[in-house]
Design a protein that fits this description.
- The structure is a single chain.
- The protein is an alpha+beta fold.
- Helix 2 runs antiparallel to helix 4.
- InterPro entries: MoaC, MoaC_bact/euk, MoaC_sf, MoCo_biosynth_MoaA/MoaC, Mopterin_CF_biosynth-C_dom.
- Keywords: Lyase, Molybdenum cofactor biosynthesis.
- It catalyses: (8S)-3',8-cyclo-7,8-dihydroguanosine 5'-triphosphate = cyclic pyranopterin phosphate + diphosphate.
- Pathway: Cofactor biosynthesis; molybdopterin biosynthesis.
Length: about 160
Amino acid sequence: MNSFTHLNADGNPAMVDVGAKTVTRRTARAQAIVTLGPDIMQHLSGADIATKKGPVFQTAIIAGTMAAKRTDDLIPLCHSLGLDNCQITITTDGDDAIVSCLVSTEGKTGVEMEALVGASVAALTIYDMCKAFSHDIVIKETKLMEKTGGKRDFRRD
């Protein structure tokens, strides 16, 4: 039977003790879809959208990477992790920008939250940089796509 991990025996919030776990290679990939709409996508030139604030997707990649590295500052009870790698890619499909964040580390706990935070903040940065064009932007389907290296691997089809 599954139970919540961030509660102690008294039912109070607590950080998970990973001291007895084995160090393994941990990876996770998360994705967020940002529906920008045709008004914004008409400004797509090459693989990015140029604005007065700078290139939208390149800026979002930097913001997402910075956020993934600071996940423990944003999400209560997350362990501080030194990431070995964080790769954010942004592709387009019709009116959508698809943000993918792949992270990895050698550690005792997984990096799912780091991947989700990286993808989320990159998506929020796209919204912020494009909102002058339209407020019809929708961030949707932020989800874990896969993870490896823990008790059980996971892959979403």
